[in-house]
Specification:
By secondary structure, the protein is an alpha+beta fold. It has one domain: Immunoglobulins (Immunoglobulin-like), CATH 2.60.40. It has one helix and eight strands, in the order αββββββββ. A five-stranded mixed beta sheet has the order 1-8-7-3-4, with no helix packed on it. It is globular and about 35 Å long. Keywords: Signal.
Length: 124
Amino acid sequence: MKNFFLFSVLLFAFSVTDVEGAIYRIIVEIGKEVTYDFGEGMFLIKRFTKASSNPQYLFASPDQDGTWTTDGIDKIPSSAHLNWNGTLTFKTISENDVGSYEMPLEPSGIPMAQSLIMFELAGS
């Protein structure tokens, strides 16, 4: 039984070390411009911020006005602009833009986790 337990722990340790994922941390300052390149084909960005308790989405479109939405109807103001090439730019970042950003269209790379980008305030 002792050997089985040791084997199980080692098997788990090796399987966890094979998992890769990307977590990026971007330090931002309120009122400053911020740009991040999510990559080609990333024309939909999902974020979690204090602006809403629900996930918020931004789609690249010719008519975008920078607002994020949780359901396609509500509008959460921002200075964000998402280009079709996957580049997200905030003309002036606000506290409501600080949080975690994900790419729902990112190809699955099992066993890799999806990438997570954290926008954090300078000095936090």
